[in-house]
Amino acid sequence: MQTNNTLAILTEEQLADLYDWICADGILQAQKRLAQPSPHGFGLNAHRNTLSRFFHDHSRRDHRQDLVEIESMPVNPADESRLLSSAQTILAHTAYRLSFTAAAPQVFNQLSRTLHRHRIADLKEAFLHVAQQQLDIARQRLALQRDFLAEKKRQFNFNAAKQAALHALKIKTVLADKTIDLEAKVWKVNDIVFGPPPPETDPSPTATSNQ
After folding, report:
1. 179 — alpha (psi -120 to 50), left (phi > 0) or beta?
2. What's this model's pTM, rounded to 2 decimal places?
3. Alpha helices (H) along the chain
4. Which of 20, 90, 104, 154 has the maximum number of C-beta atoms within 10 A of its C-beta?
């Protein structure tokens, strides 16, 4: 790993520890710990900008490794959700690392907005999924309602035909009557098949008076 002259004296293991300190406690605390003598630190004074550049270089290297791992995955439509999840994880880790340093606030803000847009997109996708489910349920209910109405109509037609068959002679007599018009014949057949309508009642109360 390439680094500046100040940190060049550290071993790979020590550099890894320094990176972990920055991730865990931030640059300022890592700077103080680095200056402490062994075993708490490495007895090395380093400027904050030096630690910030080291941190970003190390983060970019890890980020490139993550991208290589994702690109090495087989391109399969069934794995798209897994690829997106991995990309979101990388963004989250990168934002987490940058949150411990103020060296690149614009980059951190861009990553934060990206994560926010991904969350909004996930919520929209979930909403559309629920809406699609509700639409499917509504279509199923409509199909059931149509089937129900079709069955009721079939039963009505059957019952009407049955009553017409049972009263065929009466209906034939009505239809042969030449003294009434067609509309009157229809109403008489209706009374034969379905029965006469209930008698009408006067809704007004009967007035009584006492003289």
Report:
1. alpha
2. 0.37
3. 12-25, 27-35, 48-71, 80-98, 105-166, 168-176, 182-194
4. 90
